[in-house]
Design brief:
The structure is a single chain. The termini are far apart. Strands 1, 2, 3, 4, 5, 6, 7, 8 and 9 form a nine-stranded mixed sheet that branches. Strand 2 (27-31), helix 2 and strand 3 (47-48) form a beta-alpha-beta unit. The protein has 13 helices and nine strands. Residues 296-301 have low confidence and may be disordered. The chain has helices spanning 12-23, 35-42, 52-58, 69-80, 97-109, 123-127, 139-150, 164-192, 197-204, 212-223, 233-249, 255-269, 280-289, and strands at 4-8, 27-31, 47-48, 61-64, 88-91, 113-116, 119-120, 132-137, 155-158. It folds into two domains: 4-162, NAD(P)-binding Rossmann-like Domain (Rossmann fold); 167-289, N-(1-d-carboxylethyl)-l-norvaline Dehydrogenase, domain 2.
Length: 301
């Protein structure tokens, strides 16, 4: 197969994927509106091009990893207007279903093959090829893309009709939101109990009560260091709004997920928007310490 791929968007996820594909002998063409990101990836062997149209002309398969619906729609229009023969266009971002369907419509009208393939995993996991690809759309195009997925992800699956990838991602992110906050609460409980936080991470993480988010974010909570962020609180707030709307659309109450939302909102209010979502630990620590134990006139020490 032709091991040439184009990537539009070279941020935390797109940049890590690009590096991994170069290491696996892919010819990676990249474009980002941030010239600094392009220069950094050029040093890693990515061929930086001048724009989306040039990338579309030169790459038979294109992946998009972008921060906003407007950016995704703009790129879709640029690909559609490139005048090239049909391309497989793999959309990796987390967006509403309406945004994904708009992306699909624009590209289909121009004869291209759009796939909805959001990723499960953080930027740190992306560096380690520890991602899950939730692929949906044209089954033949997904089958042709599996060797590509295998070179930057741990697992992938064809989930059926276009949009099912996003639906699966919403379910996964629903759990991540809860696990982050549950991890923070557990670490504060351990701290109050006088346990060594580092031993808590070492012994709880692999056990029945552990989770991938505990294993990734509890160490950050112990150190009190939330940068560089593998998922910024500000970006996560956007993703959570999408999940909340999705749950409402399908008529499903999500009480645990709903309880976590004010905690992330408070993290933003505390100026933690650019830090990792593990910073919810600081929110709970402030809240719990400020709340007196019943029957006491001061916070429990």
């Amino acid at each position: 197969m032709d091991k040439t791929v184009g990537i539009v968007g070279l941020g935390i996820m797109g940049g890590a994927i690009a590096r991994n594909l170069v290491e696996r002998a892919w010819r990676v063409l990249g474009f980002d509106t941030d010239a600094g990101k392009g220069a950094e990836l050029a040093a890693a062997g990515v061929v930086i091009v001048d724009g989306v149209r040039q990338l579309t002309r030169d790459a038979p398969v294109i992946m998009t990893s972008l921060p906003t619906p407007a950016a995704v729609e703009s790129v879709a229009n640029a690909i559609a207007g490139s005048g090239t023969k049909p391309r497989i266009v793999i959309e990796l971002s987390t967006l509403t279903l309406a945004d994904k369907l708009r992306f699909e419509a624009i590209l289909k009208a121009a004869g291209h093959i759009p796939l909805d393939c959001p990723l499960s995993g953080t930027g740190a996991q992306a560096k380690m090829r520890d991602l899950i690809v939730y692929a949906s759309g044209d089954s033949s195009a997904i089958a042709r893309s599996m060797p590509l997925f295998a070179d930057f992800a741990r697992q992938s699956a064809d989930l059926g009709v276009f949009g099912n990838g996003s639906r699966m991602k919403f379910v996964a992110n629903h759990l991540v939101a809860i696990h982050n906050v549950a991890t923070a609460e557990a670490m504060i409980l351990a701290e109050r109990a006088g346990l060594d936080p580092k031993l808590v991470v070492e012994m709880v993480g692999p056990g029945a009560g552990g989770s991938r988010m505990f294993q990734m974010r509890a160490p950050m909570m112990v150190e009190g260091k939330y940068e560089p962020a593998t998922m910024k609180v500000s970006t996560w707030k956007k993703d959570m709004a999408i999940i909340a709307d999705f749950a409402e659309d399908v008529g499903c109450e999500t009480p645990l997920f709903t309880l976590t939302q004010p905690i992330y909102t408070q993290a933003m209010a505390m100026g933690l928007g650019d830090q990792d979502t593990a910073a919810v630990f600081e929110v709970l620590k402030k809240t719990i310490i400020a709340t007196p134990k019943e029957g006491s006139s001061k916070p429990d020490q």
